[in-house]
Specification:
It is a single chain. This protein is 10% helix and 50% strand. It is built from 2 helices and 24 strands. A hairpin with a 6-residue loop joins strand 20 and strand 21.
């Protein structure tokens, strides 16, 4: 009896994966808008405002994708930016180990924050934490993970991560979403932690970029994005085909954003009409 129930469960799971896969395969990305420019990074907030970085200038677009605000960063060159909190955008310059927080008018909130001055030896990645005004920093010098509050005090510190990140290439991306913290290690996989910094597992992948969508971890490999459910992180449940040459991507506000060499594409995945 138990055997039959187990087989029935496996069969149901198999059918659900097949149906989800068919759902993704029957949809195609349709471009609805675009913003031209050779941008190095971008982010999107919860209200659909688009922040784009071109060398030392940040531009903010909204509504009909008209430029609403611009800010000159002078010697500050962001290597990453994040607008997951609607009231601020985080910009991080890995080379200089400094970060800035801007509001939604691109006004600098706190001035330059030098992470080395906060006893962080080699900050290589920074991302927002959804708990309050906190944010995460991955310290490559001490191989530790640190969460800081708005007063730049350490509130969480996970040390001895040498074995986890002892690899030929340093981690390249970090994001927290839906109670999980993801760190991409090129050619190795995604290190997955809970929001308290407890290590869960490494999901093996050759992905070059990661993202999130509802209950899924998104993995970009070549011209495809795989979606892995966060209930167990077992395998990709479905795949999106994406345009060639995508440098970064973001799923937000029922829209999909793809950053290419000279443009940002904005659109949606729509169902293919199989009728002739």
């Amino acid at each position: 009896m138990c055997y039959l129930q187990s087989m029935k469960l496996v069969f149901c799971l198999f059918l659900s994966v097949i149906s989800i896969s068919a759902f993704a395969q029957n949809r195609v990305f349709v471009v609805e808008d675009s913003i031209s420019g050779e941008y190095s990074s971008f982010s999107v907030d919860n209200f659909g405002r688009v922040y784009l970085c071109q060398e030392d200038v940040v531009e903010l677009y909204y509504d009909q994708n008209d430029t609403v605000f611009t800010a000159s960063l002078k010697s500050f060159r962001p290597t990453s930016m994040e607008s997951s909190k609607s009231f601020r955008t985080l910009l991080f310059d890995q080379e200089r180990s400094v970060l800035h927080f801007f509001d939604n008018t691109l006004t600098d909130l706190h001035g330059e924050i030098n992470l080395v001055d906060q006893d962080i030896q080699q900050p290589i990645l920074v991302c927002e934490s959804f708990a309050g005004n906190n944010f995460w920093v991955l310290d490559g010098g001490m191989m530790r993970l640190i969460k800081l509050n708005k007063d730049l005090q350490f509130i969480t510190q996970i040390e001895n991560l040498v074995a986890l990140f002892d690899h030929d290439e340093l981690p390249s991306q970090m994001v927290e979403y839906n109670d999980f913290l993801y760190i991409l290690i090129p050619n190795k996989g995604v290190a997955i932690f809970d929001i308290f910094g407890t290590f869960i597992k490494i999901y093996p992948t050759k992905a070059t970029a990661i993202g999130v969508l509802n209950d899924y971890l998104l993995l970009q490999t070549g011209n495809k994005i795989e979606a892995v459910k966060n209930d167990a992180f077992l395998m990709a449940e479905f795949t999106y085909d994406i345009p060639p040459g995508v440098k970064a991507f973001y799923f937000s506000n029922r829209k999909v954003y793809f950053l290419l060499e000279s443009t940002l594409l904005i659109g949606q995945y729509q169902k293919i009409n199989s009728k002739k």
